[in-house]
Amino acid sequence: MTVPSRGGSVAASLLKRQSRICASCKYTQSRLYSARAEAATIAEAHHLQPTEAHPHPPVTTSRRTEFRIRSGVILTRAPLITRALTPFENAFFFYQKRLNERLTLPFRHTFYFKRDTASDLDWRIKFEERGKIAAKELGRYYAQGRNAWNDELLVGSTLSDETRVREILLKDGELRVTEDGEKAPPDEVVPMERPMDRITEADKTNDIRRLDRKLDQSLYLIVQRSDGFWQFPTEDVPTDEHLHETAARALELSAGANMNTWMVGRVPVAHYVRQPKYAEDSSLVQRGEKVFFHKGRILDGQADLTNNKMGLKDFNWLTRDELRTKLEGPYFRAVKNMMADR
Fold first, then answer.
1. Which residues, in sequence order, are CB contacts of 191 under 8 Å at separation 6+?
2. Which of 87, 101, 154, 189 could serve as 143's disulfide partner, Cβ 3.0–4.6 Å?
C-alpha cells in the first residue's frame, strides 16, 4: 500500500471515530486546544515558568500597593442666565421682527384698548412718540409703506444693539397717564424698574470665591491642599464603600455641610491616573493614584473650609477656561471632556 493510500485510510478512520462525538463536545475540545496554544505562545514570548500565565512587572512590590484608589466629585454651578448674543445674532433677530411686521395684519389698538380710557390714552401718547408705528423697538420702519422692502440693517447700524433696545422698552413701559385719566407731566412719570446687570459686583472685583459671578457660564469647585496643589474634592476609597459614596463623603469633608448638593449619578464621568515613582533598584518610592470623578450639582449654599478635616487651605469657583491655568496640565486634560462649553 502506498503512502498516500495509507494516509487516506488513517484520515478515514479518524473521521469515523469523530463521528461518534457530538457537535458540542467537538467545539469544547477545539476551544481548550486554542486556549492551551495561546498560553504556550505567551509563556514562550515572556520566558515564563509553566505555572505562570501572564508576565509580571520587574519589581518586587505587589501591584496592589503601587496605586491608591481615590474618588472625587466635580461640583458644578450651572449657568443662571443665557449668554450674550453676538452682533450678528442681534441683527438677525431684529430683521426677523421687521419681517414679521410686514407679514402680519395691521395692529388694531381698538381691539385691545377701550376708547377714551386711561390705557387707550397711554397707548396713543406712545404711538405718537414712535412716529405712529405700532412696534416699539423697530425704529422708523413702516411695514405697510412703499419702503417696507427695505427691512435689512446696514453694516454698522446700532438699531439692534441690546442696550438701545433695552432703553426703548424701559421708556415705553412708563405709565404716561395719571389716575384721573389725564396726561401726566414729566415730573410725575414713574420710571420702570431696571433689570439687573449681567456683570455682577463679584465680576468687577474678580472674587473667585463667590458663586454670583460668570452668570452665563458653568463654575467648578476646586480646593487647595496644604502643599499648594489644586484639585477637585477627593478622598481615598476604603474597602467598605462604593465610589459614589466616597465622592459624597469627600465633598462634605472638603467643603463642609453648608451646601445643598445633588450627585448626578453613581457612575464616574472621568478618571485621572498618576503613575508611581521607582528608584534605580526598582523599589517603590511614591505610590501612584487612580482617581475616579463623579458629577455633582450645587443647588444652594456655599463652600466652607472652616475646621475641615483634610487640611485644605483655600477654594475657588472657576470656569473651564480658568481651570486650564489653575490645574496641572495632565490633571486638567483628564477631566476637560466632561465639562460643558460654557
1. 170, 174
2. 101
